[in-house]
Amino acid sequence: MGTAGDILRRLGPKASVQKVIQKFESTFEAVDTKETILRKFHASQQLDSESIAGYTSRVDEIYTQAIKLGGIQMGDEDSLKSVVYQGLKKEMKQRAAYKFDIISDYDKFKIELRKIEQEMKTEKPEQKKCNAAVNIEERKQTDMEEVKSLLGKLNSRIDILEKERIQLKEELRQNAQQLTYQQYAGQHQPLRYNFNPGGKNNFNRGGGNNLNRGGGGRSDVSYRGQGRGNLRYQLRRPVAYRTFTPTCYRCNEKGHMQNECPKV
């Protein structure tokens, strides 16, 4: 979009006024519809840094556009005054409520609004009090943010300590299991068989007791039984008088045959 000077330069010095106006309208005129301009009109609000003169001029311009588009009838200043009043800043609106009720003329109502605006500018002590309240509120907000930040750091530190505690507990548990396994493995070493062709053949449990065969010597092996002590088990070859004892079929007693029964 070019500026107004660029448009005039392109039209040239011989362009008519009607042609210039037509170009300006096609380039800069608002393209709002009746519905959009009415929504904009009724939603008008005074900005924080906007004066009464600037605010009312802006609303008047929207009002004029709405009339051109057929959204508002010419001379409907009651609607214009109502929209201007409803869009005032809160404090200004409170002070202008009485003037809005008693003054029907729109231009006179604008004059009263400018008077109220001037009175508010001269009330500097009250303005300072408002600033002090704002500063106190900002300081409270800053203190609250610092407290939240400190609590966040404390929570993070607590989480780290909790993780370290769980990790240490797990390491202690694993070390205890490893120590128990080592003790168990030391007490339950497997048997090892040593074969000597010309001498004794030994079963050794960790270099301890032996099971010896051959050489005519005594053979034994260590046996871990109930409790914590060790029992010595001796290997013996079975003999006849232990493995076979005769039983008498007459008296059913052992130690003799029926033909030698003393009860006959």
TrEMBL record:
<keyword id="KW-0175">Coiled coil</keyword>
<dbReference type="GO" id="GO:0008270">
    <property type="term" value="F:zinc ion binding"/>
</dbReference>
<feature type="compositionally biased region" description="Gly residues">
    <location>
        <begin position="205"/>
        <end position="218"/>
    </location>
</feature>
<dbReference type="InterPro" id="IPR001878">
    <property type="entry name" value="Znf_CCHC"/>
</dbReference>
<feature type="domain" description="CCHC-type">
    <location>
        <begin position="248"/>
        <end position="263"/>
    </location>
</feature>
<feature type="coiled-coil region">
    <location>
        <begin position="144"/>
        <end position="178"/>
    </location>
</feature>
<protein>
    <recommendedName>
        <fullName>CCHC-type domain-containing protein</fullName>
    </recommendedName>
</protein>
<keyword id="KW-0863">Zinc-finger</keyword>
<dbReference type="GO" id="GO:0003676">
    <property type="term" value="F:nucleic acid binding"/>
</dbReference>
<dbReference type="InterPro" id="IPR026523">
    <property type="entry name" value="PNMA"/>
</dbReference>
<dbReference type="InterPro" id="IPR036875">
    <property type="entry name" value="Znf_CCHC_sf"/>
</dbReference>
<feature type="region of interest" description="Disordered">
    <location>
        <begin position="204"/>
        <end position="226"/>
    </location>
</feature>
<keyword id="KW-0479">Metal-binding</keyword>
<keyword id="KW-0862">Zinc</keyword>
<dbReference type="Pfam" id="PF00098">
    <property type="entry name" value="zf-CCHC"/>
</dbReference>
